[in-house]
Amino acid sequence: MTILDLLSWLCLTLGGLVGVIGAFGLLRFPDFYSRQHAAGTTDTLCAMLILLGLGLQAGLSLAAFKLAAILLFLIITSPVATHALANAARQSGLKALTSDDTSDDNSGSKP
Q: Helix, strand, coil: what percent of the chain each, to 5?
């Protein structure tokens, strides 16, 4: 195995790991905005790492150029789509979860 193959597999593995972490963030975070942050951030990083790993495997070829074009498109569109969804949610009146909205049974402030 060459160093290029090792770097490629490292990027592919890290990209998959970031995708799984993002999925856990979607399941564990309490409200729409924090879930969207987890999904938007990890989605972009996951796609970047996977496409970088695939580009390293492709070498200097037409396939690598196409992967770079896809990467550029995703870097531009993914944050814009995340922002548009958050803005639409805010415009429709969806409020963010605050510390007042959560209840802690161990706080002792409730009767």
A: 75, 0, 25
70 CB-contact burial (10 Å; exposed 0-12 / middle 13-18 / buried 19+): middle
- Residue 15, both tokens: 């990209």
CA distances from 41 to 32, 74, 81, 90, 109 (A): 14, 12, 12, 19, 36
**30-48 pLDDT, tens digit each:** 888 888 888 888 989 999 9
Long-range contacts of 34-42 (CB under 8 A, 24+ apart): 34/97, 36/82, 36/85, 36/86, 36/89, 37/82, 39/82, 40/78, 40/79, 40/81, 40/82, 42/18
- b/e map of 78-109 (b: 16 or more CB within 10 Å)? beeebeeebeeeeeeeeeeeeeeeeeeeeeee
User: pTM above the 0.85 mark?
Assistant: no
Joined together, the tokens standing for residue 66 give 């196409």
